[in-house]
Each structure stands twice: as structure tokens, then as C-alpha cells.
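Researcher: Next sequence.
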Amino acid sequence: MIRKIMIFAILLNFYWADSQENKIVIPFSLSEYNNIIFKVTVNDVDSLNLKFDTGTTGLLLTHEAIKKKTNLLINENTPTKNYVKLKSLVSLKLGELQWSNLEVYPVMLSGQGTDGRFGWDLFKQKVVVTDYNKMKMTVQNILPDVSKYTSTKLIETKTMLCIYGEIQVDNKLFSGNFLVDTGYQKTILLDSILMQEQHFPKDLNLLKVNRLRNGSGETFVTKVVELPSVSIGKQVLKKVPVQLLNKPNPAGFKTHFLGNEILKRFNTILDFKNMTIYFQKNSLIDLPYTDAS
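Model: Next structure:
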């Protein structure tokens, strides 16, 4: 009897070990606008293209997608406002992953080629590995080998994820938080208030002027200047064209934005159990920046 119990215990331990190592691999595409796009299914019937956006939380769908690509308005009034959730809860299927009873928030815009976006909080207590070389995301329960990665702690502020970083100009260091935002298509958006408080240099080389729009359709004018050196997650980047915002940033707190034109140059591991992000340079590291010219 004791021997049977021991055998059962060994088998049970093996089962739990196997389940803990379970990995779900999901392919994605990376658009020319740096959007990480997944094919998903809503309520088992509606097929959509959604962007993985670490700069947001929850599930957000565009007004147009809700009207033309889903059956969500059968028992709903047509939404007219941004970020006012629908009455109905939905299920979402992403590869082998599935969530139930998710709230849907309508928005005016999402990334080009997408019908909306989903945030980092769907993966709480998971480990998310994003491999830009193989265009796949792996969601798992345990941390893989990180010996070839650098790391830094994730700082959760108002549901957003930030990391500490440094900018070097003329041998002076300017430090602060950077919001990790795969939904931001550019490199870095510098916070105007932080820059003013830190007496950031005003004579950086002006490259161009851009106009950007957020999910609500608001337009932001940004000047593009070149930073000599930026350090994030113990990775150093040289001569980075970055954006200067002409108004307070939309996060609601002081932080720079670290966008996916930089993040895509690193395979990343988001460890939401221990709130740590890992970086490893990938094959995109030497791509020219779109605003460099």
C-alpha cells in the first residue's frame, strides 16, 4: 500500500511539473508601423486583428470594428463615445489561450491594420516571451534561461508599466521612468514636464516635425531631435531620434514613453510574477530609425 502511494505521489509530482512547464506559442505579425498584430476570435464567431499594447490594459475595439466586424451590437446601442464600456461581456480567444467575461471599451483609433488592442494585464502572473526573430509570443508559467539577457524591474504606476532609464547629453545624465509601450509606434516620447524640471538641453539637433494621433483621435505635434545616448534595461543605444511632445503626456503622470520602434530591437521577457523585464538584442538591432533622416 505504501509503495502504491509513493508511486502515485511521484506521478502526481510529474504531472504538476509538466503543467508548470506548459508553453503556449502564438505567432504574430509585425507591421511596418511597429504594431504587434495577432489574429483573435471574439465570442467564438468574430475574427479580428488586435494589437498587443503594453501601454494599456483590458480589451479595446474600434467603433468601426464593433459595427462592421462583430455581433456585439445585437443587444447594444451603437457606441458613440470613447472608453465607455459596452454592457455585454465577451470571450476572447488568442491561440490556445481564452478569457471569459471581458469588458469591451470602444475607441476611435487603433494601430494601422488592427481592429483594436489588448493590454498587458491579460497575462498577470504569467511569463511572456516575445521573439521578434521568429515572430512568435510564448506564454508560460516559469522563467526560461535568461543568462544572455539584461534585466530591470517593472514599476507599476496607475496600471501602467515603467522602467528606469537614463539619457546622456554632453556628459550629463538625465534619469527618469520610461513607460514600456509596445502600442507607441515611434522610439521615445520625452515628457515635457520632466524635461523642464531637469533643465534638459534645448539645443539638440532638430530633425523634423511630426503629427501623431492617439486612440481618441487627438493630434499631438512633436519635434524630433537626436539623443546621443539612451540606456534602458542596461542596454545602451546611440544616436536615437526621439519625439518632444508639445503638451503634457497622456499617461497622467510624469514619464517618458518607450515605444516599439526601440522595443522591437530586443527579444523581451515580461515576467509578471516577479515584475521584471529582460532584454536581448535581436536581428533588428541595427535597423535605421524611421525619423533618422
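Model: The chain is about 10% helix and 45% strand. Residues 2-20 form the longest helix (19 residues).
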